[in-house]
Amino acid sequence: MDVSGILAEHAAKQKAVTVEKDIPLEVDTGLLTVTDLNPVDTESYNEDLEGYLKATARDGVQALVSALFSLPTTSSADGPLAQLPPPSTQLPRAKPLPKPKPPTKWEQFAKAKGIQNKRKEKKVWDEEKQEWVDRWGWKGANKNEEKQWLTEVPANADADFDPSKAARDARKTKIAKNEKQHQQNLARTQGPSAAAAPPANNADRKKQIDRTLATTRTSTASMGKFDKTLEGEKKPRGVKRKFDPAEVSASAEKSHNLAILQKLDREPASKKAGGDNVLNVRKAIRSISKGKGSAALAREGGGGKAKKGRR
Amino acid sequence: MLRTIKPKNARSKRALQAREPKEVEDPRTAIFVKGTHTGEKVNAVIKEMMALKRPNAISFSKKNTVRPFEDASSLEFWAQKNDASLFVIGQSTKKRPDGLVFVRMYDNRVLDMCEVGVEKWVSMIEYKTQKSTPGHKPLMHFASELFDTHPRFIQLKSLLMDFFNGEVIDSICLAGLEHVISVSLGPTPASLSAASASTPAAEPSSTADLPPVHVRVYGVKLLASGTRVPRVELTEMGPSMDLVLRRHADPDPELLKQALRRPKLKKQDVEKGLGRKRKNMEVDEMGDLRGRIHVARQDLSRLQTRKMKGLKAGREMFDDDGDGVSGSGSGSEGEEEDAQLRKRRKTS
Question: Could you say which residues of chain B have pLDDT below 50?
Answer without folding.
Answer: 1, 196-202, 204, 319-335, 348
